[in-house]
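Input record (Table S2, row 238):
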Amino acid sequence: MASAAAPALAPMAAVSHVIFDMDGLLLDTEGFYTEVQEKILARYGKVFDWSLKAKMMGKKATESARIFVDECGLAGLLTPEQFLEERESMLQELFPSCAVMPGVLRLVHHLHAKRVPMAVATGSHKRHFGLKTQNHKEMFTLMHHVVMGDDPDVKTGKPSPDIFLAAMRRFEGNVEPSNCLVFEDAPSGVAAAKNAGMYAVMVPDPRLDVSYHKGADQVLSSLVDLNPGDWGLPPFED
Ligand SMILES: O=P(O)(O)OC[C@H](O)CO
Ligand SMILES: [Mg+2]
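Output record (SN-glycerol-3-phosphate complex):
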């Protein structure tokens, strides 16, 4: 007797709208921040580690600068403003060379073809957004809109829900948080999505301790592993 086919697993939720983080999720830029911050910290005889990285990533520049100075005990030696100024020229050189993360283009083109509305919600401010995306403009034209960290509606950075709620409100129609699936790499970003009442798929850097995965509704090693059907989105057909 032939064995019955395994029943398809029910989706974890049925969402209709997708919101992407950018740094470390769509674009491979987090390594640039790490590299530059390691260099600055080395000048003070200190080592940049992943527990500090976990606290800084995903935040607005001004917020992460404050964390860097405070957590590294640099008060009196370096102000957050000086830190931002020091890292700026190095970052400006690096950002335009960033690559797209694995699995991103297939997913974005698929969702666009299936008319799933997509947005970007990034802690990056407008000038850095321009540098990072200058070689990836086509992908961003597929987004309904982009909300950046210096947007007037983003009073406080991630883990505040401000940026994801702003992104949700800019979609057409009456969209609720439970309709939205957020893709994030940062602990602060996952917390922001959950604080907004949305679903969160985390795609963390493997060097981030697993204790930072908690809170996410799903954790993937790469967007290549995403099955859109898990979220009630149209499945890949290729
Ligand atoms: O991860 P994002 O896109 O919110 O960006 C935040 C900072 O610019 C980098 O950690
Ligand atoms: Mg990110």
